[in-house]
Amino acid sequence: MLAVVFQVGDVTSRKPALNVLLWQRALDPERGKWALPGGRLRDDEDLTTSVRRQLAEKVDVREIAHLEQLAVFSEPGRVPGVRTIASTFLGLVPSPATPELPPDTRWHPVNDLPPMAFDHGPMVAYAQARLVAKLSYTNIGFALAPREFALSTLRDIYGAALGYQVDATNLQRVLGRRGVITPTGTTAHPGRNGGRPAALYRFTDSQIRVTDEFAALRPPG
Amino acid sequence: MLAVVFQVGDVTSRKPALNVLLWQRALDPERGKWALPGGRLRDDEDLTTSVRRQLAEKVDVREIAHLEQLAVFSEPGRVPGVRTIASTFLGLVPSPATPELPPDTRWHPVNDLPPMAFDHGPMVAYAQARLVAKLSYTNIGFALAPREFALSTLRDIYGAALGYQVDATNLQRVLGRRGVITPTGTTAHPGRNGGRPAALYRFTDSQIRVTDEFAALRPPG
DNA sequence: TCAAAAGTGTTCAGACTACACCCATGA
DNA sequence: TCATGGGTGTAGTCTGAACACTTTTGA
């Protein structure tokens, strides 16, 4: 099992980035290269339990707001030595939680990845593609955002995860209409430059939910 | 590995049904119940190759127009005896190809499944949900339809796979606008009841392709 | 009073559904 | 010429992108 764990970093600054959790290999093969966290499955646990257990060594498990299966990588020669099959997972950690990391482990921006071990590079790319797609038709943003947030913050989070800037106006309307976000009624304090105080929102659910199931060919009625 | 292989049966009649390929277990455990085709992975093949090899015993491999990974089922107690992990696949066979089947193997309508072995029932349900979703945002219909077809036939195929009737008019326009289907220029002969001859179409590609990537939050421009 | 940030209003285009209407064929 | 099945026209709704404009704050 291998997990691609994402978090949006630097939410308060103006240039947030989508980061992925990697650890640096101390031993051959691929010494010095960066790898996804993971490990072997035990006989008494299922895959999801196993991934959560493996990640507990890297990040606080309670901070993983969403975890789902991605693809299985099974090419016979994908790693040297005994034949190994990798079942990959997508994990999401909300901002701004910054759990303590072991010394060999770091967050890396997905737009500037270090040399990656084995076939872990394509796995990160696959995971991001899946995240991008799900941002547009599910409420999966709940797993990246703080509990309460201003719309401009959410705009930056979506922008980092999608890889392009989105309009806060339309984000509010799309997510509002679908019932994905709810206003809390409270407002944030403006920064030192002034500006109108921002209304705060939260995600309505903290479980993934498909909000826009059919692009076309939806059932009649 | 286990494969959920679908085909739409009775395309020429007026009530086509979505069928799944099952074989009946002759031995305990679960003797007499119906199971998905599959088998064990060899050390020198990847999962896709393995699934194709396993299915060759059941259906002609050339008839599998599409094959993709689904989920991994890994609960420790999902089958009795030694712990087994099932990686499931979705396979699609075009109509009206009707390959010869071994005596223990049959097509069963998904709406009227026999008693299923182990956890294979939920696997079929999961596969159909994925198929339904992909019909609306990809060109995956190519793997269920004949090479050339009238729109009313395609309407029945989509209806069987989706579980509800669709409008042939709008199907034509949606798939036409997206470039999924192309008119061949030829027409079919009317049946004995008369009626205007139907124009024939074919799918433009025979490889899966996402046609409607973003439900919302698409990139600017 | 001005700049900055947030929020609202408005317009526009595209996609999809539903349904009425027209066309071509066999008996 | 009529029943049958196929195809086209069209209206109407909904969604979302873009962008101008207004509101609320700190300095």
Can you give a write-up of this model?
- The structure is a homodimer of 221-residue chains.
- Chain A contains 4 helices and 9 strands; from the N terminus they run βββαβββαβααββ.
- In chain A, a hairpin with a 7-residue loop joins β1 and β2.
- Chain A is globular.
- In chain A, α3 (151-162) packs across α4.
- Chain A is α+β, with helices and mostly antiparallel strands and 221 residues long.
- Chain A has helices at residues 47-56, 120-137, 151-162, 168-177, and strands spanning 2-9, 17-24, 34-35, 66-73, 86-92, 105-109, 149-150, 181-187, 199-203.
- Chain A has 2 domains: 2-136, Alpha-Beta Complex (Nucleoside Triphosphate Pyrophosphohydrolase); 140-203, Orthogonal Bundle (Arc Repressor Mutant, subunit A), CATH 1.10.10.
- In chain A, 23% of the residues lie in helices and 24% in strands.
- In chain A, strands 1, 2, 3, 4, 5 and 6 form a 6-stranded mixed sheet that branches. In chain A, strands 7-9-8 form a 3-stranded antiparallel sheet.
- The mean pLDDT of chain A is 92.
- Chains A and B meet through β4 and α2 of A and β4 and α2 of B.
- The structure holds a DNA duplex (27 and 27 nucleotides).
- Chains A, B: This is NUDIX hydrolase.
- Chains A, B: Keywords: Hydrolase.
- Chains A, B: Residues 1-131 form the Nudix hydrolase domain.
- Chains A, B: It comes from Mycolicibacterium anyangense.
- Chains A, B: InterPro entries: NUDIX_hydrolase-like_dom_sf (IPR015797), NUDIX_hydrolase_dom (IPR000086), WH-like_DNA-bd_sf (IPR036388), WH_DNA-bd_sf (IPR036390), WHD_NrtR (IPR054105).
